[in-house]
Amino acid sequence: MSNTLISSSWVAGFTVCLSLIISIGAQNLYVLRQAVQGRHVGACVAWCVVSDALLIALGVAGMSQLIARAPMLARYLSAGGALFLLAYGLYALWRVVFAADVALQGSAAAQRGLLGVLGTLAVITLLNPHVYLDTVLLVGSIGARQEGALKAVFVAGAACASLLWFALLASAGRRMQRWFARPAAWRVLDAATGVMMLALAWWGWTGIGTAP
């Protein structure tokens, strides 16, 4: 196996994954919030990178074709994810309107342990149908075209892109801590989170009826 083939497969995985994850989605907003609070940031980044790599690897290994041939599975995932995102989005918008300034700044959330933080992040990740569309179906189907061991190289490149993005996101959150000392900033973040969650919930729910 030539170095050129290895390099091209790695670059393909890196660029495809990076182009898809650079967006402000539910998972990214949650990691940003934890980074601003300075709570379990490293664990959140590690979870996101590992989950991205595993989901992409599953897609490369053939799960993308399995989901394509099992429309009911895709519908169940979309329905469950839409309901969760709806509840999470409404709660974020509730905080914008009704939460006190102290609650907005995360004093209650800061008391949550590592398992609670990672549990919420896992639910946001695994019940979001958009995650499966990006990692398993889109990136995974592209990686599946690689030959033999180059599939693993492709997944490694994608994992590196995920690590770079979430490390940058965590760093940005730390730099924004001073700005988020103001309750108004938390209201803006919660409003953006709520709108994003509701949009994803609508997207997931409407996609149920159009699935094959």
Topology:
Elements: H1 3-21, H2 26-37, H3 41-69, H4 71-98, H5 101-104, H6 107-110, H7 114-126, H8 129-143, H9 150-175, H10 183-210
Helix pairs in contact: 1-8, 1-9, 2-3, 2-9, 2-10, 3-7, 3-8, 3-9, 4-10
Describe the protein.
The chain is an all-alpha fold and 212 residues long. It has one domain (3-210). The chain has ten helices and no strands. The chain has helices at residues 3-21, 26-37, 41-69, 71-98, 101-104, 107-110, 114-126, 129-143, 150-175, 183-210. Helix 1 (3-21) packs across helix 9. The relative contact order is 0.24.
Characteristics:
212 residues; mainly alpha; 10 helices; 0% strand
Helical content (DSSP H or I, runs of 4+): over 70%
Largest sheet: none
Please provide the count of β strands.
0
Total helical segments: 10
Global structural class: mainly alpha
Task: Give a concise summary.
The longest helix has 29 residues, at 41-69.
